[in-house]
Amino acid sequence: MLVQLQKWRVNLFARQLFEGAVIAYPTEGVWGLGCLPGLEEPVTRILRLKRRSWKKGLILVASRIEQILPYSDELTAEELAVLKIEWPGSVTYLLPRSKNVPDLIAGDSDRVAVRVSKHAVVKAICDELGGPMVSTSANPTGKIPAGSKLRLKQYFPSGIDAIFPGELGTLKGASEIRDLRTGEVIRAAAL
Prior knowledge:
The structure is a single chain. This protein is an alpha/beta fold. The chain has one domain (2-187): DHBP synthase (Alpha-Beta Complex), CATH 3.90.870. It has helices at 2-5, 7-18, 40-50, 65-68, 77-86, 103-106, 120-129, 149-155; strands spanning 23-26, 31-34, 59-62, 91-96, 111-116, 133-137, 162-163, 176-179, 185-187. The two termini are 28 Å apart.
């Protein structure tokens, strides 16, 4: 319903992303900052806004598993089966990084963090893009992620090109991050 009612808005935001915009949008649990992963200038801008080292990397979020497959190499049938069970959902997985992943996205890691979202806004934007976008919590490093539009605007009074309207999902914080190969929980989900 959201996608049909706001198709014009989704199209507008996708065009802005293709032109190098940095946007803010609601996710499963916090406000996110996003851009296209292959455009260096907006990725760098997000890192500056967050005061985050490029070495830590950023998450890619997609609407379908097929959108993230070009960013990961060497997935086994068993690993793909786990992802198909978990996604769409709120768990972010570290996958083996392919050569398609820019260093600014993977950081200094041989892995890439990816999630197939179930949030209507994220799904609509990624469907319109035909691929993933950067998804990082909207907060300066060391601060609590923005759980409201007011907090988002307090953190970033400038530097964001557009804010997609909408509501957060039901999570109480940022997504859980797990290593697909080892099962290790890198960041626990908020309760």
